[in-house]
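Lab manual, section 2.4: Encoding a predicted structure.

Procedure: take the sequence of the chain (525 residues), apply the prediction step described in section 2.3, and record the output as structure tokens. A sample record is shown.
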Amino acid sequence: MSPEAARRVRALPDSTGLDEFLERSAADPLPLAARYQLVAAARALLEELYVHLPLKRAMYATDPVQGLRLLERRLAPLSELQFHAELAGVFRGLCDLHTVYQLPEPYRGHVATLGFLVERYFDADGTPHHIVSRIDRSLAHNGFDAGAELEAGNGVPIERAIERNAAAQAGANLDARLARALDSLALRPLRTCPPPDERWVTLSYRTPAGRRRETRVPWRVRAAGRHAGRAQDPVPTLATSLGIDAGNEATRQLKRALFAPARARGPAAALRGVMDHRTLRFRGRSFGYLRVFSFNVPSARLFAEQVARIAARAPARALIVDIRGNPGGHVPAAECALQVLSEAPVVPVCFSLPTTRAALALTRSNPGFRVWSSSIRAAVETGEPYSQGFPLTDPEAITAGLPRHAGPKVLITDALSYSAADIFAAGFQDNGLGPVLGTARRTGAGGANVWTHELLRVWLPELLGGLPRGAGFRVALRRATRARGNVDVPLEDLGVQADELHLLTERDVTGRNQDLLAAAAALLA
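Recorded output:
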């Protein structure tokens, strides 16, 4: 095959080369005044509205506000990409995927991809293996296909490459950082992190037949989603009840577009792509299996109705619920799904505001925040850094009239289960719905209701001005604390600890999670 033919075979459809994409962005750089505008907005958000600031300063010995002051003093000599990397780096140091700088056009709504997915499994002795689990058919060549095992990237042993990549991730614990490092080997959301420095990756791999080979795969850029022909953010910017990792939601949607295109059958159109279900059979017994990929849905009631219908059809009323890789979404949807899976009323998590002047102003301007105002005012005397905690919603009221699942349940989590998925897992455990089986020791540990700069500006126009060229910020505004036996324990940085641990096996990664689901069925039995 000629080099030109090889290049044609390896071009990912509906994508743009990274060089071409970056040339387009460099053609119209941000003016210096816009850089100052972005840094000033970041300072206002972190100083006045970021609920986890005291926690992050203590836990990570970091001072992001001082970091922004220093950045403000040396903006002029920075290149366009240096500026974006420096500002994103201040936020990355918080280890909080809720609180991020969102790059402006043309990065908005785009993901850099190599066109394949990498997953890891472990031998019985704990030896890790990293294989290509999915690949766009246009890229398969010379044994580089699903099942190929990666051994090195750009000359670096693959395990070490993942460790190095983990240091650049904002996960709240080691498992979360490693999981995101594995994901970002081949997928990087450009809205929340600068593009890759390298234009291509040289991969050493072993084919499914056992032959050692090498290939070079270029980075390409694709839209995570489109509306009216333009790339769009996959997460609403004006929603008030979100708990989500927007970057991971963008990569989730691109994975679905590349490797699991929408099917005609299934639930209502609004819920396609966020859940799936089937019946499993182990050792002569049948179980229901519900996979929830995301809580990023427009209606908590419609979501709960669909969960209730699936749970009611579960054989022997026994149900395995799987939220691995779920980046979160609509907090009421997560808590209402939890309610229809419980016979008894569930106690939802509580949310607290920071006790700052801007938070107090928000309680005065937004009627939905008034319940928090008295405890913020009292903080002048009490010195409390957080307001009193209150639930965001009433799951019992929203799910009124829906059937409740009374049978045994088990929940499967991983280190990418984040935000509203953390909240779901915490509620599952705190309300005693069943055991939690994790493929990592803890969930992703995102414990907050996140608001965008655009939404906060509606209620605090004196504090926050406009931002240039579609740039944005997301900030953890209200922190989440757990209920019942874990009352007042924060989810941020701690997550939910699994009751049982299952390291993924080769059969899990190359098949349909046979060993993982067998372990879940054993817990149910």
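Check your result against the sample. The two ends are 55 Å apart (CA to CA).
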